[in-house]
Amino acid sequence: MCPAATMSTSATASAPAAAIARDNSRPLVLSGPSGSGKSTLLTRLFKEFPNAFGFSVSHTSRSPRPGEVNGVNYNFVTRSEFEALIQQGAFIEHAEFAKNLYGTSVQGVKQVVDQGRVCVLDIDMQGVKLIKKTSLRPWFIFIQPPSMTALEARLRGRGTEKEEAIADRLETARAELEYAQQPGAHDLVLVNDNLDETYKRLVAWIQERYTI
Ligand SMILES: Nc1ncnc2c1ncn2[C@@H]1O[C@H](COP(=O)(O)OP(=O)(O)OP(=O)(O)O)[C@@H](O)[C@H]1O
């Protein structure tokens, strides 16, 4: 994997478009500290290109809530089915929350590709490390906050976390930023200072690699 290109709104470096084969079967992985702007950027992207992208449907062992549809909100399976899938190596990542298992499966990613969409994964650093062990060949984008101070301000400004959770997220962010410094960790590092500029650079980079 090539060293990541780092782009802030003032940088211009990018690989020549002609050198890269467009391949919509390659998943697009977005990672970055909580509060760095992943959801904001993805919301814009899905709105501008409504038919181009899709999220994979996760598996869960929890029961469906009223209105939830199997295969749409989640792939609902029993706990023993979930555990069998773990044994078969079906999951890129899985975790337990409130006594229920949740996971992202290789099959779930392939389903999105089969629907003719680019599969987008918004995952954390552990997920990035795990997906690298699969045969899915994703592109990796890291959304970097301009500074820890800015990240803290955004997390507070969002108003969705308690003070303790903010401290936890900042601690995790330090580890994620450190990992992102390693050569080959990501294909693109986007410093999200000016949102409009970051979004433009994200779209330009995606359009060099996918037909959307
Ligand atoms: N470039 C930017 N400048 C200023 N504020 C921004 C910018 N990008 C995003 N924000 C704001 O920062 C906050 C965090 O962004 P967002 O929720 O998209 O982060 P996230 O990376 O998806 O976090 P999480 O992983 O916790 O879901 C939001 O309130 C968003 O409006």
What does this structure look like?
Helices cover 38% and strands 20% of the residues. The chain is α/β, with parallel strands linked by helices. The strands form two sheets. Strands 1-10-9-2-8-3 form a six-stranded parallel sheet. A four-stranded mixed sheet has the order 5-4-7-6. Helix 5 (148-158) runs antiparallel to helix 6 (163-181). The radius of gyration is 18 Å and the shape is globular. The model has no long low-confidence stretch (mean pLDDT 92). Adenosine-5'-triphosphate is lined by residues 32, 34-40, 154, 157-158, 192, 195, 198. Adenosine-5'-triphosphate (ATP) binds at residues 32, 34-40, 154, 157-158, 192, 195, 198. InterPro entries: GK/Ca_channel_bsu, Guanylate_kin-like_dom, Guanylate_kinase, Guanylate_kinase_CS, P-loop_NTPase. Keywords: ATP-binding, Hydrolase, Kinase, Nucleotide-binding, Transferase. Pfam families: Guanylate_kin.
